Automatic annotation (TrEMBL):
<keyword id="KW-0325">Glycoprotein</keyword>
<dbReference type="GO" id="GO:0098552">
    <property type="term" value="C:side of membrane"/>
</dbReference>
<dbReference type="Pfam" id="PF00913">
    <property type="entry name" value="Trypan_glycop"/>
</dbReference>
<keyword id="KW-0732">Signal</keyword>
<keyword id="KW-1003">Cell membrane</keyword>
<dbReference type="GO" id="GO:0005886">
    <property type="term" value="C:plasma membrane"/>
</dbReference>
<feature type="domain" description="Trypanosome variant surface glycoprotein A-type N-terminal">
    <location>
        <begin position="10"/>
        <end position="215"/>
    </location>
</feature>
<dbReference type="InterPro" id="IPR001812">
    <property type="entry name" value="Trypano_VSG_A_N_dom"/>
</dbReference>
<feature type="signal peptide">
    <location>
        <begin position="1"/>
        <end position="21"/>
    </location>
</feature>
<keyword id="KW-0449">Lipoprotein</keyword>
<protein>
    <submittedName>
        <fullName>Variant surface glycoprotein</fullName>
    </submittedName>
</protein>
<dbReference type="GO" id="GO:0042783">
    <property type="term" value="P:symbiont-mediated evasion of host immune response"/>
</dbReference>
<keyword id="KW-0336">GPI-anchor</keyword>
<keyword id="KW-0472">Membrane</keyword>
Length: 221
């Protein structure tokens, strides 16, 4: 997907070079918020792995307990003791059954999140990459032409990871109990601070050929 984005960048870059940039850059702090969100969403499979592992451990423990209780019931010397072990076996098998059902339910709920979390993260990262490339002097951007930065200058980040975006290839498979609550919670993307995301004054308000101008408001979107 990055190859496709790079091709789009090359095509758009020519259009930007042919006309003066007259649109606002994305504020670097807002870019970092978006990148952090992408990094968090990319960890969705890690959370699913944690939940699956936890339920699987419970199911295995319950199954083992049922097997041990059944064996003990058969070896018990008295009827009362045998009855107790049989009761334990029934409870353990019920727990194993409930946990297996919970695993199936988790699979149905987790699969869309596992797919859409990293997919959304990829879309954000690709958009940031496109704007980041347009902000690098090595790609032909001048001091007054950039799409991520501040009022008077382009970002000094050397890589997307410097802006807190996730790497192109995910390598961390460590299970996580939950996603970063400072970035996302049950109510939405709480890590995205309210307010304009564009640079609204000075050089940055007219430095990016891809975005709206500093004077444009939400009605122009």
């Amino acid at each position: 997907m990055f190859l496709a984005t790079f091709t789009i960048f090359l095509l758009l870059q020519q259009a930007v070079k042919q006309a003066e940039a007259s649109h606002a850059a994305l504020d670097e702090e807002k870019a970092k918020q978006l990148c952090k969100l992408a990094a968090v969403l990319a960890k969705t499979p890690n959370v699913a792995a944690h939940k699956f592992s936890k339920l699987q451990s419970v199911a295995e423990a319950a199954s083992d307990a049922a097997t041990i209780a059944a064996s003990a019931a058969g070896e018990a010397s008295g009827a009362n003791l045998s009855t107790v072990f049989k009761a334990v076996e029934l409870v353990a098998r019920g727990c194993a059954k409930d946990t297996t059902a919970a695993l199936a339910d988790l699979q149905a709920k987790a699969l869309p999140a596992i797919i859409n979390g990293p997919k959304t993260a990829g879309h954000i990262a690709e958009t940031m990459w496109l704007m980041f490339q347009a902000s690098k002097t090595t790609q032909g951007a001048g001091t007054n032409k950039y799409c991520i930065g501040r009022r008077t200058s382009a970002t000094t980040a050397q890589t997307l990871q410097d802006l807190q975006c996730p790497p192109e290839w995910a390598t961390d498979t460590t299970p996580l109990e939950t996603l970063d609550g400072t970035a996302i919670d049950a109510t939405g993307y709480k890590g995205l601070a309210p307010g304009p995301a564009k640079v609204s004054s000075s050089t940055g308000s007219t430095s990016c050929g891809f975005l709206l101008s500093g004077a444009d408001d939400a009605t122009k979107l």
